[in-house]
Amino acid sequence: MITDEDVIELFRKCQAAQPKQMDRNRGYYQQFRRGTPSNRWKNHHPGGCDRDKVVFDQFNVIPKYCFDCYKVQIEPRTVMELFKLMMVFEQIKLPLDNGRKCLTELRTKVSGTYKGLIYCQGFEEAEKMLTMIREIISEEISKEIKISLKRGCSEYAIAYPKYELGKGKKLMPYNESWQKYEDIVDSSFVVDKLLIENETLNHPTYTSEETDTMLFWLTYAASIGDMSYLPIYGLVLAPFEGWTRTTSFNSDKPDKNKDTTSLKRNDPCFCGSGKKYKRCCFNLKKESLTDQV
Fold first, then answer.
1. How many CB atoms lie within 10 A of CB 190?
2. pTM to 2 decimal places
3. Amino acid 289: pLDDT
4. What is the largest CA-CA distance in the chain?
5. In the chain, where are the structural domains located?
6. What are phi and psi of 276, to 5 degrees?
7. Which residues, at least 6 apart from 267, have a Cβ–Cβ distance to it below 8 Å?
8. Tell me, what's the pLDDT at 186?
């Protein structure tokens, strides 16, 4: 089982190798990716999901390939569990090296906070993957994490509710008249040469962009009141300025503004780690607040 200490050690090693200050004026990567890139999936356009997004955004039609695209969706409850899922995705060996990613949810029309996705082609492959992943997540992280199947991108189901998976529901088929819109996009779509050359997203070390991603996740956690980031980062982080996105993060979970003055040293820590307050966030919070004075 991956422990909180494993996550803390990993983050500190990454920080030591590529120390960074949070620059709030620059863009951040908020997704961690591994596996086969989308442009190399069987029968997929060489432009991958970037091309599919252009088709949908320009013409509000779902590309044909996406009707056979299914995902195993894992929903970590905290940023600590998101880091653990990242570590699972780093180490896991899948038969087809399926594309996979961890992310924080930023889309205003899509619910949820933390997510992991494993891409599959066809419902049968996705069902087998679901069974495999449930066992792995149960052993490595927790039995309580929600894991389910999705079809394609969330935006598709918002635009076309019949596209979405549902018990006893007849799946929406591809509309052949939409092919003309795909042809229009393909006539001018420029494929990224670097994307074509990249046969895999797997690599032995974490990149500077991935270190940025980790910092983004932790600030995201601070912004939604998920205090499980504190043991990882070691200091209190200010939330993103002007944060307006509503989330489904459980408000009953520890609040970043919670008054801890009444907590005794041997009480359970407010961050939800399960440890005693004196052995978890007591010193971290005290020291970090002092630093900010």
1. 7
2. 0.81
3. 37
4. 67
5. 29-197, 208-292
6. -70, 145
7. 276, 277
8. 93
The answer to whether residues 272 and 255 touch, using CB atoms and an 8 Å cutoff, is no
Rounded CA-CA distance 246/243 in Å is 9
Q: Residues 169, 150: contact at Cβ < 8 Å?
A: no
Phi, psi of 150 (to 5 degrees): -130, 155
Residues of the chain with pLDDT under 70: 18-29, 167-168, 193-198, 246-265, 267-293
- Domain 29-197: which CATH class? alpha beta
CA angle 280, 284, 288 (to 5 degrees): 165
CB 160 within 8 A of CB 62: yes
Closest CA to 196 of 25, 72, 45, 24: 45
Q: What is the pLDDT of residue 117?
A: 97
Length of the chain (residues): 293
Residue-wise pLDDT tens digits, 50-71? 999 999 999 999 999 999 999 9
| Angle between helices 208-224 and 79-91 in degrees, nearest 10 | 150
Angle formed by the axes of helices 4-17 and 208-224, to 10°?
Answer: 130
Structure tokens at 22: 């949070």
| pLDDT score at 169 | 72
Task: List the structure tokens of 7.
Answer: 């996550």
Q: How far is CA 79 from CA 86, 94, 216, in A?
A: 10, 24, 11
pLDDT at 9: 95
Q: What local confidence, expressed as pLDDT, does residue 253 receive?
A: 44
